[in-house]
Amino acid sequence: LFHECQRLTAVSMLGISYRIMMRHPSPELLALGDELPNLQRLYLRSVKPLFGEIITFAALCKGRMNQQQAERIDELVAIARSMTEVIRLQRQLQTNLLTALGCGSDILQLRYRALQRRLLLLNRELRTQLELSDPEQLRLQLALLVERVLLDSRRDREDIELLIRSNKIDAMAAASLMNDAQTLRRIQRQQLKAISALFVNFVIEREF
Q: In whole angstroms, what is the distance from residue 70 CA to residue 52 CA?
């Protein structure tokens, strides 16, 4: 499910293949697509059926498990649900992203391209971190990613405030950009918490 969600992110949020997202040697220079497929259709075709199979399998397994095992299964289902929440948030972000990329404002296009690129970089880094064999090292790297997400969020707010004071965007554009920057943060938050719970049995305590 995690892999499929990452594939949908590459195709529907970045306009590139999963392979390119993960393997391109210079992601900061990678040209992102302008025409993005409908994420809702992709979700219904792949992620939703897969999630349905997961919860069905979990329900059948719990009938033969003790309480401790059943509680762990519930935790894993909750993690899977959080991954589907990532897709829901991306559907919301995709709509506004397409609107911004189609408008005539270079300022908005630049900011939304930056949001796309941060989504790309986090997904690459998560995949890289999962190759670490030491759980403690993975925990440390995930904690560093959390701090970076928080720093990016503060910079987003400061950047938008500067654009407002410079009279470069109006109130509607500022509201859209602020909301979508927060949506990106929620996407990143869900991804980081899911990976932490799945692979290092670690709960991120820092609120972000």
A: 18
- Determine if the pTM surpasses 0.85: yes
State the 10-residue block means of pLDDT for the chain, 208 residues long.
92 93 85 87 94 95 91 91 93 92 90 94 88 82 92 96 96 95 94 84 52
d(CA 111, CA 129): 27
Q: Comparing C-alpha atoms, which of 5, 10, 18 is closest to residue 37?
A: 10
Cα angle value 124/126/127 (rounded, 5°):
65
